[in-house]
């Protein structure tokens, strides 16, 4: 057992998967010699060789196409895009081929590939580096979308994603890559996909979020607790397929819900959760569901970046609005 950061949990999961299964290969721009732009693949090429950790040209379309082809022929590619904004050229292969492979071949072929990349803002990066496109990928049939929020969940969920027989988008919230350290055992145990994780039990209000927003949401829950409000905190973790059962069950007890996402408000995952609660949990709600989101604009640069992203105070304001409804 060792204390490690989220990014180190990713590296350890990649090494474990490659050690256990020779079909697992890692590919992407600078993943080999340089160990990745955020050092997620540091040391893997030296350990497993150039045939299993491939430095590719600067061509995201090629990386996606290679991954689909390799997966269809029995390999388990784990591709890296350097930043979330660079994934847009990959969408054609993901939506038209990876997500449809099992259906198109009537089950003769599957596409056990993982595309992992850093997502979200908060590190003052230039444009094309700070997007939160989880809703876009979640709208693609046949593809799982996963976002870890801690070192242990990064390790367990990435192992599950690599072992899954179908394509998985693994979005890594780079703002919390090195936010905290946590004891993680390299035991090869995966965590379940398609389920939410309840990080804190509560009875007065349910706070739902994922990825880097876990940081602000837990801080808001601490302040609510200090004020005598018991907040349940749910980490969605697998964005698609979405585990509404856990969220509905929580709201059936608390009666109130705030959903927090870094992505823009319009047509986001928070909207899907609010709609799911209106559909399956309407009789439990004591107040309207509030969404705390980024704004419907491009992520601003530098000093204005943190003004765009949901803050602890914005989460608290939404929680108090919900709690004041009698």
UniProtKB/TrEMBL annotation:
**InterPro entries linked:** THDP-binding (IPR029061), Transketo_C/PFOR_II (IPR009014), Transketolase-like_Pyr-bd (IPR005475), Transketolase_C (IPR033248)
One annotated GO molecular function is: oxidoreductase activity
> Cofactors per UniProt?
thiamine diphosphate
What this protein is called in its record is: 2-oxoisovalerate dehydrogenase subunit beta
Q: According to the lineage, what is the superkingdom?
A: Bacteria
Q: Which residues form the Transketolase-like pyrimidine-binding domain?
A: 4-179
Q: Print the keywords alphabetically.
A: Oxidoreductase, Thiamine pyrophosphate
The portions of this protein that span the membrane are none
Job description of the protein? The branched-chain alpha-keto dehydrogenase complex catalyzes the overall conversion of alpha-keto acids to acyl-CoA and CO(2). It contains multiple copies of three enzymatic components: branched-chain alpha-keto acid decarboxylase (E1), lipoamide acyltransferase (E2) and lipoamide dehydrogenase (E3).
SUPFAM superfamilies in alphabetical order: Thiamin diphosphate-binding fold (THDP-binding) (SSF52518), TK C-terminal domain-like (SSF52922)
């Amino acid at each position: 057992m060792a204390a490690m950061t989220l990014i180190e949990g990713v590296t350890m999961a990649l090494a474990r998967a490659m050690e256990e299964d020779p079909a697992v290969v890692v590919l992407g721009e600078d993943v080999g010699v340089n160990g990745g732009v955020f050092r997620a693949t540091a040391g893997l090429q030296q350990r497993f060789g150039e045939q299993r950790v491939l430095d590719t040209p600067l061509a995201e379309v090629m990386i996606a196409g290679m991954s689909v082809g390799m997966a269809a022929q029995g390999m388990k590619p784990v591709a890296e895009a350097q930043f979330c904004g660079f994934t847009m050229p990959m969408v054609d292969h993901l939506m038209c081929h990876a997500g449809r492979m099992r259906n198109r071949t009537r089950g003769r072929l599957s596409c056990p590939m993982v595309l992992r990349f850093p997502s979200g803002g908060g590190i003052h990066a230039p444009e094309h580096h700070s997007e939160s496109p989880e809703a876009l990928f979640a709208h693609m049939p046949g593809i799982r979308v996963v976002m870890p929020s801690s070192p242990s969940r990064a390790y367990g969920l990435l192992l599950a994603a690599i072992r899954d027989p179908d394509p998985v988008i693994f979005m890594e919230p780079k703002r919390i890559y090195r936010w905290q350290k946590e004891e993680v055992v390299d035991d090869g145990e995966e965590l379940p996909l398609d389920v939410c994780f309840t990080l804190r039990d509560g009875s007065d209000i349910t706070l739902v979020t994922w990825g880097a927003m876990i940081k602000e949401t837990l801080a808001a829950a601490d302040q609510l607790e200090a004020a005598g409000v018991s907040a349940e905190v749910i980490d969605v973790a697998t964005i698609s397929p979405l585990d509404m059962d856990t969220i509905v069950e929580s709201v059936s007890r608390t009666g109130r819900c705030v959903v927090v996402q870094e992505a823009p408000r319009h047509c986001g995952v928070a909207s899907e959760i609010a709609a799911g609660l209106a559909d399956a949990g309407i009789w439990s709600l004591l107040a309207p569901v509030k969404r705390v989101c980024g704004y419907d604009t491009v992520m601003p640069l530098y000093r204005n970046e943190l003004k765009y992203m949901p803050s602890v105070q914005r989460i608290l304001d939404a929680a108090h609005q919900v709690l004041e409804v009698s």
